[in-house]
Amino acid sequence: MNILETKEVSHDFRGLWALRNVNLQIEKGERHAIIGPNGAGKTTLFNVITGTYVPSRGKVFFKGKDVTKAKPHDMVRLGMGRSFQITSTFPRLTAFENIRMAVLSKRGIRFNLFQKVDKMKSITEETDAILKRINLDGERDLPASALSYGKNRSLEISMALSTDPEIVMLDEPTAGMSRDETHTAVELVRRLTEGKTTVIIEHDMDVVFSLADRITVLHHGEILAVGAPKEIGENQAVKDAYLGEMEV
Question: What is the mean pLDDT of the chain?
Answer without folding.
Answer: 88
